[in-house]
Amino acid sequence: MSDLSEEEEEAEEAEANLGEYEGERNPEGERHGRGKAFLPNGDTYDGEYEHGFRNGQGTYRFKNGACYIGKYVQNKKHGQGIFFYPDGSKYEGDWVNDQRHGRGMYTYANGDTYTGEWFNHNRHGQGTYIYKDTGAIYIGGWVNGNQEGEAELIYINHRFRGKFSNGNPLGPGKYIFDIGCEQHGEYIQSEQDKGEVEEEEEVAFHGIPKWKASEITKLTLWTPHGEKPPSPKEPPQVAAEAVKEKAAAEVNENE
């Protein structure tokens, strides 16, 4: 995920009121209202000001090709905004204090997309990630940028439902196939032969979980609150009453 460096952000902040400026000012001489600034570092800002701060709607163009179009509060990206990154990626959504925070959609340089919740610049909460190359779709939980918690991973002709930990499926789950069956099992954390791992590396080592199937069953049909739907052979009460009324009407006509 491409983003601005800390040095660039600090330069943006330090030079907020430096450089050439064309626009409105208040009686105190502060930038106030609509204006355009040409910063010494090569960046430009065209938008609203309030008491010398970028405040309101504006467009900030960075010399490296990045561009932000959206809301500002005291020089910070805050509110709804779109950020175009130098590598071609894009984020559109909520900002809080210069951080991606709230709900938003990130389109990555490789064509992948993430739509969901953000916290302090990271994917965090519930979200949907679509892989462009394979068409696979991950719908579920995220923690600090990693897939975590209950989720569903959807492929072209099957899907997996279970839990994820640090980006990998782990524990009980099931594969649901379009041909009409389910394969139950669990992902087990594999372990490398401890003899091949240095003692100080054992704590940090994590193998790739492996799928261990247990049984294959028919598809599990979901019904609200576990209630069984009425049998097709037994018409609902309303339909039964209608049949009775129709029969009575026919008897009366015959009489």
TrEMBL record:
Gene3D superfamilies: Histone H3 K4-specific methyltransferase SET7/9 N-terminal domain. Residues 1-41, 222-255 are annotated as: Disordered. Keywords: Cell projection, Cilium, Cytoplasm, Cytoskeleton, Flagellum, Meiosis, Repeat. Residues 22-32 have a biased composition (Basic and acidic residues). Transmembrane segments: none annotated. The keyword Nucleus does not apply. InterPro entries: MORN (IPR003409). It is found in: Cytoplasm, Cytoskeleton, Flagellum axoneme. It holds the Pfam family MORN. Functions as part of axonemal radial spoke complexes that play an important part in the motility of sperm and cilia. This is Radial spoke head 1 homolog.
